[in-house]
């Protein structure tokens, strides 16, 4: 394209990144486009509440400022909220942990500008909004990308780079039909997670988010499907029955030697692995990395060199496409989901932990994603 400008998001030269606990991007019509929290499960509803509480202050501040940077908007409890509104009325909010002294405005402004530049770079993708050949397309056709939820994994990693966060690299694997009428066996479908965190040790809970619609969200919901509980059961009984179900998928915490596996499953449309072990694609990572049968989920495979694999079942889902975040589904009375493009936050119980490297002489080092690249500790 003649005269096209390539937008390169600046690197934030500030040490405030580790104080930022959440980044929120809000559309012109005040609909949430993106929310990234350090602990995504701990506070999704709380962060949305804080962002909406600050919107009135944004409107007042815009009438008083000509600079896009709006400064400190308000403080609620332990959080200081800073704001930025672009010329196109895209609002960016940074939620920082409250300290005894205010944060330097020049450093907060650098972070806001870096997030805004990343957003502009995301919108400048000429293929954004076009249909992909499978159901994992990010944005529906005939939708203005500037009004659609941001679910792009590269955008998420770029935000983490700006803030300086280091993230463990994990895969989720679940069963899907083969899609071939001549192959009745189940296949293993895996996806690299862009967000994964521990929620609780007692009970053992983890959380992760996945874009939808996608094969993985369908596979997870299918595994969680169960007959309807008796209507007379109490809410406490429903939760207990949810925790009594069997594990139906695995989360693999990857090691530093498994970078190629992470890259393979981060691509949309990654090939599945047949549980029959027949007609395995030549380039599939399960073919080239040592694997062993899972003892917790029959038919699944565990990467031997991984830090460990968690055998899980779904407990709750939070539909992040819902502006008021009321799209919560309890995986007891069936599985309800949406066909809208966006992402869903899943809460899962850990039933078992499988370690394949117990007899290795050298224990593997964890694979970590930081500063747009892989590293280890």
Structural class: alpha+beta
Strand content: 25-35%
- Rounded to an integer in angstroms, the radius of gyration calculated over CA atoms is 22 Å
Sketch the major β-sheet: 9 strands, antiparallel
Count of DSSP H/I helices:
7
**What number is the mean pLDDT?**
78
Distance between the termini: 43 Å
Number of strands: 19
Helix content: 10-25%
Overall morphology: elongated
Element-level helix/strand string: EEHEEEHHEEEEEHHEHEHEEEEEEE
Low-confidence region ranges: 1-14, 131-139, 226-242, 332-339
List keywords for this structure.
377 residues, alpha+beta, TRAPPC2L, 22% helix, 19 strands, 9-stranded antiparallel β-sheet, Longin-like_dom_sf, FMN binding, 5-stranded antiparallel β-sheet
Task: Describe this entry's structure for a reader.
This protein has helices at 44-64, 105-123, 153-163, 215-224, 235-243, 259-266, 285-288, and strands at 20-26, 32-37, 69-76, 79-85, 91-97, 167-168, 170-177, 186-193, 196-201, 204-212, 249-253, 273-274, 291-293, 301-303, 308-319, 328-330, 342-354, 368-370, 373-375. It is α+β, with helices and mostly antiparallel strands and 377 residues long. Strand 9 and strand 10 (204-212) form a beta hairpin. The longest helix has 21 residues, at 44-64. The model is unreliable at 1-14, 131-139, 226-242 and 332-339 (pLDDT under 50).
């Amino acid at each position: 394209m003649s005269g096209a400008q390539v937008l390169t998001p600046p690197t934030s030269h500030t040490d405030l990144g580790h104080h930022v606990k959440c980044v929120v991007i809000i559309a012109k019509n005040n609909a949430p486009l993106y929310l990234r929290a350090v602990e995504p499960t701990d506070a999704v509803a709380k962060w949305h509440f804080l962002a909406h509480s600050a919107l009135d202050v944004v409107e007042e501040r815009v009438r008083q400022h000509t600079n896009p940077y709006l400064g400190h908007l308000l403080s609620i409890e332990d959080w200081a909220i800073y704001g930025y509104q672009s010329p196109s009325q895209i609002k960016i909010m940074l939620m920082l942990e409250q300290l005894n002294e205010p944060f330097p405005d020049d450093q907060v402004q650098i972070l806001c500008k870096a997030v805004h530049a990343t957003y502009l770079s995301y919108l400048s993708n000429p293929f954004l909004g076009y249909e992909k050949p499978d159901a994992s397309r990010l944005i529906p056709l005939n939708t203005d990308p500037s009004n659609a939820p941001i679910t792009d994994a590269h955008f998420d990693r770029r935000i983490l780079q700006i803030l300086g966060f280091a993230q463990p690299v994990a895969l989720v694997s679940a069963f899907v039909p083969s899609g071939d009428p001549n192959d009745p066996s189940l296949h293993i479908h895996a996806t690299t997670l862009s967000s994964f965190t521990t929620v609780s040790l007692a009970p053992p809970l983890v959380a992760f988010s996945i874009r939808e619609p996608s094969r993985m969200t369908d596979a997870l919901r299918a595994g969680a499907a169960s007959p309807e509980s008796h209507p007379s059961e109490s809410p406490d009984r429903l939760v207990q029955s949810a925790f009594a179900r069997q594990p139906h998928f695995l989360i693999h915490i990857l090691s530093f030697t498994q970078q190629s596996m992470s890259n393979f499953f981060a691509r949309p449309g990654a090939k599945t692995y047949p549980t029959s072990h027949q007609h395995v694609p030549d380039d599939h990572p399960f073919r080239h990395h040592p694997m062993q049968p899972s003892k917790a989920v029959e038919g699944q495979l565990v990467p031997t060199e991984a830090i460990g694999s968690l055998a899980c079942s779904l407990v709750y889902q939070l539909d992040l496409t819902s502006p008021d975040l009321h799209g919560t589904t309890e995986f007891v009375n069936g599985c309800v989901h949406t066909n809208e493009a966006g992402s869903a936050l899943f809460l899962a119980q850990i039933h078992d932990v499988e370690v394949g490297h117990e007899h290795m002489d050298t224990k593997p080092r964890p694979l970590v994603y930081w500063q747009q690249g892989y590293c280890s500790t």
